[in-house]
Amino acid sequence: MSLDPSTVVIRDITPDITTFSIPYSLGPIRAGGRATTVRLPSGNIAVFSPTPLTPATVEKLASLGNQVAYIIAPNFEHHLNISAWSTQFPTAVVIGVEGLPEKRDKNDATRGITFGRVFTAENKRTLSISPEFDDVFHYEYVEAAKNKELVFVHKPSGTLIAADILFNLPATEQYSLTETDPQRGIVGMAVAKAFNAAEGMSLTWQKRNLWYVVARKDRAGFGESMKRVLGWQFDRVIPCHGDTIETGGKKVLEELTSWFVEGKQGKLAATAELGGYIGEDCL
């Protein structure tokens, strides 16, 4: 993807967690994009949903020790920059979900990457990333989600790192170094309101999107995964799209997934306009 390097917002969330937020559009929807890096006690770094390697990004990684050891494509769509990161850090283990290696091998622009770990429905309860990684993270492979999601919780900070399970639009931080209003246009404004997870905002459209689009083929399986995730301790949520939820994130996810976890039924179908964009390659 083409990116103006001056628009990357680099922020230290904690001494060990850094985000790289960028402007990113899905058609008329300014969803934003975000990579999250976490430095492990060994100094090794894990990167989730890698964004482009700009000069500022490379400089920041160097300041963190430059020991990128894990490159994670957390679903079937958030993978477009893993080639550049793997080239820059050739000893890093590339982690993804079933079907993604085959998808990438069909495209000249993305083929050639070796995945060190691939999560499947069969191995999700037994696959280990590494002892040091497993000590620091909980993780769940949500194969029931349309895009085959990996969800992580950084145990020391109580931070959930997500791809497309949860949105918090508008993408204010991600567009903060541009002159573009992330809510510009009728569609942009409507989607930003519908997918805003801030306190006091209605989560109805996000719940419908999960029920009727993201998990419609296996709602029971999705519910089981969400019960597992909600059993972990976390308060902060870092989504790929939209602003970070600094506190109260677990309460938001509990509400978003209540139809699955509590067995409640949805009442209204999500519109094609609000659900149809999910499934495009992201970052």
TrEMBL record:
InterPro entries: DUF4336 (IPR025638), RibonucZ/Hydroxyglut_hydro (IPR036866)
This protein's name: DUF4336 domain-containing protein
PANTHER family reported for this sequence: METALLO-BETA-LACTAMASE DOMAIN-CONTAINING PROTEIN, YALI0C07656P
Domain of life, source organism: Eukaryota
